[in-house]
Design goal:
The complex is a heterodimer.
Chain A: H1 2-5, E1 10-22, E2 26-30, E3 41-48, E4 55-60, E5 77-81, E6 86-88, E7 90-93, E8 96-98, E9 110-121, E10 124-132, E11 141-147, E12 155-161, E13 170-177, E14 180-181, E15 190-193, E16 205-211, E17 224-232, H2 234-246, E18 270-276, E19 278-284
Parallel strand pairs in A: 3-18
Antiparallel strand pairs in A: 3-4, 4-8, 5-6, 5-9, 7-8, 9-10, 11-12, 12-16, 13-14, 13-15, 13-17, 17-19
Chain B: E1 2-15, E2 20-36, E3 45-65, E4 68-88, E5 98-99, E6 103-117, E7 122-136, E8 139-144, E9 150-156, E10 161-177, E11 182-193, E12 195-200, E13 207-212, E14 220-233, E15 238-255, E16 271-287, E17 292-307, E18 316-317, E19 324-333, E20 338-347, E21 351-352, E22 355-361, E23 364-369, E24 375-376, E25 380-390, E26 400-408, E27 416-423, E28 431-437, E29 442-450
Antiparallel strand pairs in B: 1-2, 2-3, 3-4, 4-5, 4-6, 6-7, 7-10, 8-9, 10-11, 11-14, 12-13, 14-15, 15-16, 16-17, 17-18, 17-19, 19-20, 20-25, 21-24, 22-23, 25-26, 26-29, 27-28
The chains are: A mainly beta, B mainly beta.
Amino acid sequence: MQNNRINIKIKALVLLGSAMLIFNACTERIDIDLEESYTRLVVEGMVTTDTLAHTIRLTSTTSYYYSETAPAVSGATVTIDDGTSVITLTETEPGTYKTPTDYYGIPGRTYQLNIGLATAINGHETYTAVSGMSPKLTLDSISSVYHEDWGSDGYYEIKCYVLDPPSTDYYMFRVIKNGVLVSDSLTRVLVTDDRFYNGNYTNGVGIGFLNQSFEKEIVTPGDDLTIESSRITEEYYRFISQLQIQSGYQNPLFSGPPANISGNISNGGIGFFAAYPVSYSKTIASGL
Amino acid sequence: MSLGNQTGTIRWNHLFSQKLFSNFTLIHSMYDYRLGTPEGNANSFIWTSKMQNQSGKADFTWYINPNNTFKYGASMIVHTFDPGHAKGTGSESLFTEFTLPHNYALEYGVYLSNEQRINEKFLVKYGVRFSAFQNIGPGTVYNYDQDYNVMDSVVYGKRKIYKTYKALEPRLGINYIISNTASIKASYSGTVQYIHLAQNSTAGTPLDLWFASSPNVKPQKADQFAIGYFRNIKDNALETSAEVYYKSMHDVIDFKDNAELLLNPQLEGELRTGKGWSYGLELMVRKNTGKLNGWISYTLSATRRKIAGINDGRSYRAPYEKPHNISVVLNYEFSERSVLSANWVYATGAPVTFPTGRAVIGNVIVPIYSDRNAYRLPDYHRLDVSYTLKGKNKKNRKWQGEWNFSVYNAYGRKNAWAINFVEDQDNPNQTFAEKTYLFSIIPAITYNFKF
């Protein structure tokens, strides 16, 4: 009765859609106007446990399209205070300030860099930076392995054997081949925290990689391979990591949002003053 | 790079009575994209990110009387996120496979609304939606301290619900009819969004990442107010409208400075939360009839964000802010079988962060950046043209076919997808800007048929 009046209408509709786009990217140079931001002081330098003339380099920032080497900042008074004594650095060439050749850092001390500029940059004449030096960690040994199947021409991997202390630690490793520094820029050094092996024996973890496609990194069996290992502060670790991200070295596809690198220089200065102990471990490159 | 979008829909309409109409829908959708580097290098790899939804909903419309139309319904969505999977490609690859853990969530909604004609002049719409969102295991949640450092993590087992969010979303609209040809509409809506899109506005590569609400990421809430004037002219041949809106957003997410995005299982720690707001004016003219029909629209808008820990806490442009947006769609019907269409879009270039200076540290050129999103990509514009020729409508034929000839980006505009700053190979002190674009002209011929 009532049901009879109900008008039943059934409509089923099936829609299936699919879209797939494949992009092939092309690139071309373009002109982009960039405003110039104000000039800032750039500080770069470190104190290590090695006995040598330690260098502090002072330069200034430039416009992004500036095509020369960074301008030196000359005529500054630069001192380093380790809590017990203060030494004054000498300007050996414009912007390069050196300690005496018998200078070395002592683990456990805190180092303060003081800079007095001849003329203010960005409204400031004095800049400071403080860095504590961690205890030394010497590797038990290192070894090298050739991986024929890595990359187009193979890689030499340098492996490390050491007991990592239970604390959270940060390390920096540089490769020296036959007395020549291979990791010659901050994007080529390897920095790591001890997330994967904290408190354990690092049974052959890779700390140096030599790409046999690059002339500078080619290893001949019998070559002398040295690792300079440094226990660095978390602050310096973050600084180098950010620098490696922002310079697009790690992987340009996945770099984070562009941002300025945070260093430890006061008054808006850019760069880092680091203090860290170094130790050296040597091995002879294995045969192929 | 590739991206895909696949949807399957099953819909069933049912008329319970002359007054009660229903609509049941099941939808499966999958959005994925892939990024990769060319094969053959030690560091060649392909990266995939996927988001899948299975949803079901039931919608009912009850025509109570000529003055009241009551709508109600319920929905449920099962979300599956596969945020990232990387794999080396080719035999020379250095990479081992790496998968970010999947995560799962359930979303529910129930709504009631009524459209009521109060008198000749006033029409009101009011309603409320109740929604809920639940994270369901298996899943790993990282706990962060106030500095966003990971303190510990909790692993939840299968089917374990580990976080529930609930919200009421009210809406109200008033339509005041001035005359046969003119009306004013005002509306308010409060909405909650449980799935967030975080855009990495890097000049290098735009990367979109989806985030589900979770113990660490609150749902985004928004309040929107709009008022518009609608008027038909020339005997209703032209519809015109002007509308202004203001939208206020809470718990908006964005990536912090120096965020690490590559296969980072603790991505939530790279997010910062704050507020956003946007406002704008939309103008539109539409012609529905005649051989020449189509529409022209123009939007003037601004969208800003203010998030502690980003841009020194000062407000900045949202990555999708495009102040000027023009869209022109025109169709010319030569006959019932043959139609020529043109579509032109124009938008201000998306905000990006560019270097405004540089420092040299450790033999590396380090860019010094502008404020977040202070620059823009070049403006985007494109013309698409298509011509459709339908087959003759033969009575006995069970199917109908049509030819479509189209040209995408007809004048070959090389719209920038990304701008990179690169060092000159010959002079490492020299840096220049390089634009990446994805398409130039793309002609296409397709044949479609319906049966």
